[in-house]
Design goal:
It is a single chain. The protein contains ten helices and eight strands. It is an alpha/beta fold.
């Protein structure tokens, strides 16, 4: 079983003395633990990006991180910083996150959703001070959507290319969360093109709510997102309402 997530559930540390890298599992729901029932049943492997501050940029560091994580059955993915920001901070956080939490376009564009300046103003004022943030305009700019969507597709495609090189017949793939909604279809299409048939099984699990169909229909690329998710054999949600919204949107 290959567990695919945008952020690998690991913590990376670089030694200040000799520059060597070390890693350990984080407290993520999909991190490997001693009581991990999946690893008792399947041979498991993890695929995803890694988060470090500052970001890893040199080939030497990338090779060192790959070697460290290989011992943990993890394959790290390194993304171009500009593409990563457009995918994660743009499409994921500015578009998909609010939409999937039932924030519609009117709220997104006019109510100050995600406006950090407003939050900072409120926090900086003392108790009892009145702060009028009702007229604060959102910094969300729909003209950026095409670039964000291109980056979103590009990141999903990078994951699909790496997965295609790893996959063996009858492997099971467990894809996690809204960062990778297009991945099931991309893996499916790559397999069909390569072998003429589907040989792997796919699970897709969404870790955030799925919006009502009325809100989801406003999403610019909603149809492509649904197509991507529907190419998985099983689609999972945290709550029945989320599954019901997904079925309504699909219909």
């Amino acid at each position: 079983m290959i567990l695919v997530c945008y952020h690998l559930p690991v913590i990376l540390t670089k030694s200040s003395s000799d520059g060597s890298w070390s890693a350990c599992w984080s407290e993520s729901l999909i991190a490997k633990t001693e009581a991990h029932t999946i690893t008792q049943t399947y041979e498991t492997h993890w695929v995803g990006t890694v988060s470090t501050n500052p970001p890893i940029t040199t080939d030497e560091d990338k090779d060192a991180v790959r070697a460290v994580l290989a011992s943990m059955n993890c394959t790290p993915i390194f993304l171009n910083q500009e593409v990563e920001e457009a995918h994660y901070l743009g499409m994921c956080k500015q578009v998909l996150w609010p939409c999937f939490h039932n924030v519609d376009l009117l709220d997104l564009s006019a109510s100050g959703w995600g406006q950090r300046e407003s939050m900072e103003v409120v926090i900086s004022k003392g108790a009892g001070d009145e702060v009028d943030v009702g007229n604060t305009e959102s910094d969300w700019d729909q003209s950026k959507l095409d670039g964000w969507w291109s980056a979103y597709r590009a990141v999903n495609s990078i994951f699909a290319d790496i997965m295609s090189m790893m996959l063996r017949p009858n492997d099971m793939i467990w894809i996690h969360d809204y960062h990778l909604t297009l991945l099931p279809k991309m893996i499916h299409d790559a397999e069909i093109e390569e072998t003429g048939k589907r040989t792997v099984e796919m699970i897709y699990f969404l870790h955030i709510p799925f919006p009502t169909s009325q809100v989801f229909r406003e999403l610019e690329h909603g149809e492509a997102i649904l197509e991507g998710m529907l190419h998985a054999d099983v689609v999972g949600f945290h709550a029945f309402d989320h599954a019901r919204h997904f079925l309504n949107a699909s219909k």
